[in-house]
Design brief:
It is globular, with a radius of gyration of 24 Å. The protein is built from seven helices and 18 strands. A five-stranded mixed beta sheet has the order 2-3-4-1-5. Strands 12, 13, 14, 15 and 16 form a five-stranded antiparallel beta sheet that branches. The chain folds into three domains: 4-100, Roll (2,3-Dihydroxybiphenyl 1,2-Dioxygenase, domain 1); 111-189 and 292-333, FAD/NAD(P)-binding domain (3-Layer(bba) Sandwich); 191-283, D-Amino Acid Oxidase, subunit A, domain 2 (D-Amino Acid Oxidase, Chain A, domain 2), CATH 3.30.9.10. The protein is of the alpha+beta class. It binds flavin-adenine dinucleotide (FAD). Flavin-adenine dinucleotide is lined by residues 134-135, 167-171, 175, 195, 237, 279-281, 310, 313-319.
Length: 334
């Protein structure tokens, strides 16, 4: 079994989270580092945390181990029962019908349909959408921003605006630089990180009836099982930092994908995997760096008032898109 490195956190049940936070703030003499809807955490040598989830009815002790898979296998071999949280907030044995049915709140969306619905909603509220116009220069004047754009046909024009929201995805660092920001000094330099998908052979169409996520790896969520709208089973994405944007999927990676999948789907062979497609994440976290989250920030304090930068918007940027829009709205109307 992996060597147990020591206790890292203890989560106590807290039926009334506010009262629990007040009591532990007084006990520890410090404010919580995080307070959410049903969870709060205090820092320190061993983190103390409080959970209002119904199944947390006794203290939970978290240990650090060298290898979580080894530790889990060793515990199960010694008679432990692996449990998962299910939709009603209770626990069930992993592998039972309740867990296999998964959480009904997770799933897949038609990405282009979602984007199209946002476009329609924006236009219904008076927005004008100019597709195929690339922003090439930004100037800040007394009345706001002047954005120079060039159409796909090469025609140049200008757009003026009071607020400028930089949501340029992989181009967001460059747009921030065009607005005069020192992206390296401000930690806004994005690193393209490619993620490839492989398609499982049709014989595996029933291999899972919900998304399956392993424990996350350094720069990504780990090779997980998902589906497309045509019902194909996809495995991916991996993580590969790249210098030049490219979207090829190297068939030779089937061996690495097969090995990653067999950790939780032992029946998948390497030749059951065919190259699918690739996407590129605009990550703020470079190779070997500590975790970096999105940046959603207004740039007044960096000399660019009226500019809101959305930088490093990688997964789950789509899932979080409405919340991100709410945050931009909050910054603009603040
Ligand atoms: C492999 C992979 C898997 C993912 N899986 C998930 C997932 O399961 N769930 C999830 O929620 N998210 C996922 N994501 C993340 C999600 O796709 C992104 O977070 C989301 O697309 C970001 O949206 P965005 O509008 O910020 O950027 P983008 O979708 O990149 O849009 C930016 C737009 O700006 C335009 N643009 C760029 N430069 C200029 C310019 N100079 N002038 C004018 N326009 C410009 C681009 O053409 C583009 O249309 C995944 C991403 C990858 C790469």
């Amino acid at each position: 079994m992996s060597e147990l490195k020591g206790v890292t956190s203890i989560v106590f049940p807290a039926r009334d989270l506010d009262a629990g936070v007040a009591a532990w703030t007084a006990m520890l003499g410090e404010e919580p580092a995080f307070v959410g809807e049903d969870f709060a955490a205090f820092g320190g040598g061993v983190d103390v945390a409080l959970s209002a989830l119904p199944w947390v009815d006794h203290p939970l002790v978290f240990w650090e181990v060298d290898d979580i898979d080894d530790a889990q296998r060793a515990l199960v071999a010694r008679g432990a029962t692996p449990l998962g949280e299910i939709a009603d907030g209770s626990l069930a044995d992993l592998g039972t019908a309740d867990v296999t049915n998964g959480d009904p709140a997770t799933g897949i969306v038609d990405v282009h349909g979602l984007i199209e619905s946002y476009r329609r909603e924006a236009e219904d509220h008076g927005a004008m959408v100019a597709l195929d116009h690339a922003a090439t220069a930004l100037d800040r004047g007394p009345d706001g921003w002047r954005v120079s754009v060039r159409s796909a046909a090469g025609q140049a024009s200008e757009i003026t605006c009071t607020w400028l929201v930089n949501a340029a995805g992989l181009d967001a660092s460059r747009i921030a630089a065009l607005a005069g920001l020192d992206v390296d000094a401000l930690g806004l330099r994005q690193r393209p990180c490619k993620g490839d998908y492989f398609v499982l052979a049709p014989k595996h169409a029933q291999i899972a009836n919900h998304l399956v996520y392993p424990v996350p790896v350094h720069a990504g969520l780990g090779v997980h099982i998902t589906f497309d709208l045509a019902g194909r089973v996809l495995a991916g994405p991996d993580t590969e930092y790249i210098d030049q944007l490219r979207y090829d999927v190297d068939p030779a990676k089937a061996a690495a994908f097969g090995a990653a999948l067999r950790r939780y789907l032992p029946d998948v062979a390497d030749d059951d995997l065919a190259p699918g497609y690739a996407g590129i994440r605009p990550k703020l976290q470079g190779p070997g760096d500590a975790f970096r989250d999105y940046v959603i920030a207004e740039a007044s304090r960096h000399g660019a008032p009226g500019l809101v930068n959305l930088v490093g918007i990688e997964s789950p940027g789509l899932t979080a898109s409405q919340a991100i829009a709410d945050e931009v709205d909050r910054l603009i109307t603040a």
